[in-house]
Amino acid sequence: MRLILISSLLLATVPFSALAQKKEMIELGRDLALLQEEVRTMQKSQNDKLSNIEGTLKAIQDQIAASSRAITLLDSGLKDRMEKSMSTPLSGLGGKVDTLGQDFGYVRESVTEINTRLGKLDQKIADLSNTIKTMQAPPPAPAGLPATASGPPPGVSSQSLYQDAMRDKSGGNLDLALKEFNDYVAWFGDTDLAPNAQYYVGEILYNQKQYEQALVAFDRALEAYPKNVKTADAHLMKGRTLLKMARRSDAEQEFRAAIAVSPSSDAAGRAKGELRDLGLSTAPRPAARKR
Hints:
The protein is mostly helical. It contains 9 helices and no strands. It folds into 3 domains: 71 residues; 39 residues; 120 residues, Serine Threonine Protein Phosphatase 5, Tetratricopeptide repeat. About 6% of the residues have low confidence.
């Protein structure tokens, strides 16, 4: 009885085991098929890439072959031309080429040295030219007086000369500005800016502490141009010049003249300050009674 039971159990489990093995075999077969498909795909891709590479290599080889043929033809043509044009043997051509290369190096060094020397020579020429211009320049006119009575050089206008003088004055080139202002008064003394130019002549001389010459320049500004925008300034600066020369009473008169000419001007305000510094009243003095 026990044997029958065991046999029945074995017979019952056999179909289940066979079914499981069959399922595994099916899955393995499917995986194998997928793997084979991937391998075929990869192999096809590799074959395509190899085909492309082979095509590219073949094209490059064709280009190289064509270039080689062209070089061969060119070399052959050059040899033919050289053989036809040259009657001397070419056995020593290599040595001559080396010699030419060395000579070219020497020439290049020589050219560099020559260029350096030329640069130095150009600088010396420029310095010499500036020296000659300085030597040939006319001597400056006496301070406070016009530079020359002749007319201006060609191309010099009143506007350009005045602008140059103002630029040099602002830039600190006082000697050059002084000459230009003197030239302006001499050449364009009847223009609207002539009083300004004459005033700046005196101002530059005052700043250079040339008080005697500055006094002459301010006197000329007041005598030649008695009524203009610089009249009050000229009186003020003349007063300061006289004060530097220890002429206190004369300086006071000029300060009061600056106030009388233009009471509301900046020059009048500075003139009042000068009077206060001297311990004097800034009120106008009463006119003297006539007998």
